[in-house]
Automatic annotation (TrEMBL):
Position of the signal peptide: 1-23
Coiled coil start-end: none
PANTHER family the UniProt entry points to: CARBOXYLIC ESTER HYDROLASE (PTHR33938:SF8), FERULOYL ESTERASE B-RELATED (PTHR33938)
Name of this chain's protein: Carboxylic ester hydrolase
Known EC number: 3.1.1.-
Protein source organism: Hortaea werneckii EXF-2000
Record InterPro entries: AB_hydrolase_fold (IPR029058), Tannase/feruloyl_esterase (IPR011118)
Length: 563
């Protein structure tokens, strides 16, 4: 009897394997009735896409599942794509950016690699405008925030989408989801950390890069450059910003021991714009030709970060070396300061709760009131920085964050602060969550520094094989000492391994600076939050998961320094 049952199971497995899934299988009825706790499924549709994302051979079945949370009137669309052939048994949740809960265009490259993917619109528009602007959905009426859509955006829709995505992947393919991964940067990074906190068994591995956690704190802080310029009555010109960033890099480049046009030790950089007063500037039209006291004061306030009128800390400022043009856009040399759209939208919709509100007139006192109220009103909804990750750890989850140390949108110190808080609660955080910082790199990329090249592969090796990422492989398309505006190809020309926080990769002073082997880890350089105990050089490790044999041999030469 037992044998016969075994035989029939084998037969069924054999039949499933024998019947290929074809385009004809791509119908809404090919998936079983979906059940999503807390929601009602309104509609399921399916469409066959033989070249998903215009990638030849990227043959997928894409499902759109519309759900509602009864009593709220919302309509949330979930976009799930499953490869017709060669599904690798892994589901990948796709993170969003700005106010978009999911970046749909990020799915196709992942299905091409064999993953099934899922993204959600969280019940609001996902068009490109929707990234910067929450005004279409922030309010039910004046003064009346749509808490339901905010909760969808903060976390609930991520879990609903994950339940739906896994169920569809399994129903459609007739095989189990073996492992699941979250992949996101910025809002997508926040979402990854929110999942680790609120839905700790949804994913086995999480990529949570440049995370927009502490959303209710750093988003108001993004408005600080605008508020400072308004209150000081001084509009900085692009050439004043440029001069300040260039001078800061020149002053602090060498603090990390290597002149390469990159500040790798921003915490050690005490350059202030006061040193530029009276220096010459490129000028045109009405813009100033010498660096003024007022310009220096405005820039130093932006670097310092938001403070109360009494000078008390509210949040971090832009790191030295980060580009000002995102948070203080002034490309047209306007005579009025211009705000950053995402933070301006947050002030109007969620803080003032009035889309007509003029953010130009916010005084330093009002800024403080908005900041503190925003912290109180939204921390439990979208702060997403609870340090208790024990359930995620017990689930066996593994997580990797990387962030640029010249991030021009999200202050990396907040990400480091979060790690410190986790570590205060659990000294073994390194066993399941590691952070890496890329000197000279902006928000989710950009800049002349190195960015990770194999993050998902290294996360998978950690989850599936237990090989922890002691270093993160990284590369840059720019040669050493390149300027940002240098035209480069898309191929990496140099390689460097990133060390886990609180270490930062540091040139060893010997060897080819375009090769990984010439860098070592040093603590206390990037980390504002870590007390700088000593300057001892700690070499990270000597092997990198997934690195080819010749590159590994190179890394194992003496360039690694003393262990
Ligand atoms: C695909 O369609 C064929 C033909 O309708 C059917 O026999 C087969 O069971 C389907 N496969 C799956 C996995 O649903
Ligand atoms: C379900 O979605 C399909 C495809 O978008 C659409 O044609 C159909 O009208 C929808 N049905 C309902 C009930 O919304
Ligand atoms: C900042 O970014 C702007 C726009 O991308 C660019 O024109 C400018 O050169 C950058 N400035 C610095 C200092 O990198
Ligand atoms: C980078 O440029 C600076 C200033 O020109 C120079 O001193 C330094 O040697 C250069 N570094 C490398 C690695 O070429
Ligand atoms: C030039 O600097 C002066 C003195 O600080 C200041 O009053 C003026 O507003 C500046 N002009 C512009 C166009 O920024
Ligand atoms: C703004 O002014 C700078 C010099 O201060 C000039 O190089 C640039 O072309 C101006 N930009 C625009 C859009 O007018
Ligand atoms: C905002 O402006 C619109 C259109 O002018 C108006 O209908 C609405 O009452 C205004 N809301 C507030 C809170 O002032
Ligand atoms: C800012 O406040 C001033 C004085 O209260 C007022 O005249 C001006 O219209 C306000 N500006 C905006 C954009 O609301
Ligand atoms: C796990 O290790 C095996 C054997 O070395 C290898 O074939 C496989 O690619 C590794 N998997 C991952 C995800 O790194
Ligand atoms: C190994 O990797 C290095 C750097 O990633 C690359 O330059 C080299 O060509 C690779 N060698 C082989 C044999 O793949
Ligand atoms: Ca340097």
């Amino acid at each position: 009897m037992k044998d016969i049952r075994g035989l029939s199971v084998t037969l069924i497995i054999w039949l499933c394997l024998a019947l290929p899934i074809s385009a004809a299988n791509c119908t809404a009825s090919s998936v079983a009735r979906l059940s999503v706790f807390g929601a009602e499924v309104l509609n399921v549709s399916a469409s066959h896409e033989p070249a998903f994302g215009d990638i030849p051979g990227n043959d997928v079945c894409s499902f759109t599942v519309t759900i509602t949370h009864p009593g709220t009137g919302d309509r949330v669309n979930n976009y799930i794509s499953v490869p017709l052939q060669g599904w690798n048994g892994r589901f990948q949740g796709i993170g969003g950016g700005g106010y978009a809960a999911g970046t749909l265009s990020d799915a196709a490259p992942q299905t091409a690699l064999g993953y099934s993917t899922g993204a959600t619109d969280a019940g609001h528009d996902t068009s490109s405008d929707a990234v910067d602007d929450a005004s279409p959905w922030a309010l039910l009426s004046d003064g009346n925030v749509d808490q339901n859509l905010l909760l969808n955006f903060a976390r609930r829709s991520l879990h609903d989408m994950t339940v739906i995505g896994k169920a569809i992947s399994e129903d459609f393919s007739g095989k189990r989801v073996e492992f699941s991964y979250w992949n996101g940067c910025s809002t997508g990074g926040r979402e990854g950390l929110a999942i680790a906190q609120y839905y700790p068994s949804d994913y086995d591995g999480i990529i949570a890069n440049a995370p927009a956690i502490q959303w209710n704190d750093f988003t108001p802080a993004q408005q600080w450059p605008y508020t400072v310029q308004n209150n000081e009555g001084y509009v900085l010109s692009p050439s004043e910003f440029q001069a300040a960033v260039t001078a800061a890099i020149a002053a602090c480049d060498g603090l990390d021991g290597f002149l390469d046009g990159i500040i790798s030790a921003p915490a050690l950089c005490d350059f202030t714009a006061q040193r530029l007063i009276g220096s010459n500037l490129p000028c045109s039209g009405t813009s100033n030709c010498t660096f003024s006291q007022q310009a220096a004061d405005v820039i130093d306030k932006i670097w310092q970060g938001p403070r109360t009128p009494r000078g008390d800390f509210l949040w971090y400022g832009l790191p030295k070396g980060a580009n000002f043009s995102a948070l203080a856009p002034n490309l047209a040399n306007s005579s009025e300061p211009q705000p950053f759209l995402i933070s301006d939208s947050w002030f109007k919709g969620f803080l003032a709760k009035n889309l007509n509100f003029s953010t130009a007139n916010i005084s330093y006192t009002e800024f403080t009131d908005f900041f503190l109220q925003g912290h109180l009103q939204y921390d439990s909804i979208i702060g997403d920085a609870s340090p208790d990750l024990r359930p995620f750890k017990e689930h066996g989850g593994k997580m990797i964050t990387w962030q640029g140390l010249a991030d021009q949108l999200i202050m990396p110190q907040g990400t480091q602060l979060y790690y410190e808080k986790i570590q205060n609660l659990d000294r073994s955080v390194h066993d399941f969550y590691r952070q890496f910082y890329s000197p000279g790199v902006g928000h989710c990329g950009g800049g002349i520094g190195v960015t990770p090249t194999h993050q998902l592969e290294q996360l998978r090796a950690w989850v599936e094989n237990g090989t922890a990422p002691d270093l993160l492989q990284a590369g840059s398309a720019y040669p050493v000492n390149a300027s940002n505006d240098l035209a480069v190809g898309s191929n990496n020309v140099r390689f460097q391994a990133l060390c886990p926080y609180p270490q930062v990769s540091k040139y060893s002073g010997a060897g080819d600076p375009t090769s990984s082997g010439s860098y070592e880890g040093q603590a206390g350089m990037g980390a504002d939050m870590v007390p700088q105990q000593d300057d001892a050089v700690t070499v990270c490790v000597r092997t990198i998961a997934g690195m080819n044999a010749s590159a590994l041999a190179e890394l194992q030469t003496d360039h690694c320094g003393p262990v």
